[in-house]
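Postdoc handover notes: sequence design on the structure in folder B. Input tokens:
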């Protein structure tokens, strides 16, 4: 595997994040800890290699139909239909949008302007009553990378912008360590577009109600790779209730797009020793992204010589 060429600036960020810097003595291994949802980090760390990444990518079976291209009318995929832990949870009670069979297909046909308006004015669940601002996303809509978080926090709710609080600052540092930035190649979105009161966990009904917005964002963005930040992002996106640590370390798939699962930056603020594991995940993401470039180069050489 070609190692990621780290600039001095990126190395400075790695040190800032207390993460391993290539060519420097490795930091002391962290003791096992628990993540914010109580799952033990008992899984062995994934040793990424070109063969490992490629075979992991090949072995993942696409889950659903291809992503509709930007501007295309996309048909809505079932929303968390197979996720037992996200079903039957309390919700608004009245006029449930998940009972409106036309809503998801309508969202799946929206362009960016319509989608942003629909998100800003959404009152489909109870979070519409308590939010100050819905948060659509942030970054470059033409970026190759999509990072998916959980839901806006207090600062995001106040400003209507994604990842602008403390967790957002850490996310920016993580991006910079990867050689990325939200103004460059990255778009950032959340599973929920509105803040849950007191930053409580998203409810299953809220996720099911909101996920068509993210699905349409992905269809419009057409990212090359997705990084899911934390349990709710990973489970909501992949429509699985597999624990976070079983989703980490191996590329997952959303339709035909590779998904790398890692910890949420807010969790890393509370559990800084796990930044090392997060960095493993981000390196895997870089390697998978690199292998996509290699594959598309090989494909274009093959088609040019046919
Ligand atoms: N946490 C998230 O998951 N998303 C944000 O936008 C901010 C904090």
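Designed sequence:
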């Amino acid at each position: 595997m070609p190692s990621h060429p780290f600039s001095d600036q990126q190395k400075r960020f790695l040190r800032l994040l207390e993460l391993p810097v290539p060519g420097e003595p490795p930091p002391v291994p962290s003791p096992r800890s628990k993540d914010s949802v109580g799952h033990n980090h008992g899984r062995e760390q994934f040793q990424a290699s070109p063969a490992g990444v490629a075979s992991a990518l090949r072995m993942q079976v696409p889950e659903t139909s291809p992503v509709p291209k930007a501007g295309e009318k996309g048909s809505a995929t079932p929303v968390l239909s197979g996720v037992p832990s996200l079903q039957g949870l309390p919700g608004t009670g009245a006029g449930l949008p998940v009972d409106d069979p036309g809503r998801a297909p309508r969202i799946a046909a929206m362009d960016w302007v319509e989608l942003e308006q629909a998100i800003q004015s959404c009152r489909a669940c109870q979070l519409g009553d308590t939010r100050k601002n819905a948060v659509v996303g942030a970054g470059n809509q033409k970026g190759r990378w999509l990072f998916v978080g959980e839901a806006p926090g207090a600062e995001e709710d106040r400003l209507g912008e994604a990842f602008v609080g403390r967790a957002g600052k850490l996310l920016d540092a993580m991006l910079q360590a990867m050689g990325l930035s939200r103004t460059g190649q990255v778009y950032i979105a959340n599973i929920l577009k509105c803040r849950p009161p007191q930053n409580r966990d998203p409810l299953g009904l809220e996720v099911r109600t909101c996920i068509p917005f993210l699905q349409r964002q992905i269809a419009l963005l057409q990212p090359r790779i997705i990084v899911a930040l934390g349990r709710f992002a990973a489970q909501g996106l992949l429509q699985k209730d597999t624990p976070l640590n079983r989703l980490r370390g191996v590329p997952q798939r959303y339709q035909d797009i590779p998904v790398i699962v890692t910890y949420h930056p807010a969790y890393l603020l509370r559990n800084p020793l796990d930044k090392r594991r997060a960095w493993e995940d981000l390196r895997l993401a870089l390697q998978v992204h690199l292998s996509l470039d290699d594959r598309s180069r090989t494909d274009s050489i093959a088609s040019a010589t046919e």
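Context for whoever picks this up: The longest helix spans residues 275-305. Don't rerun without checking with the PI first.
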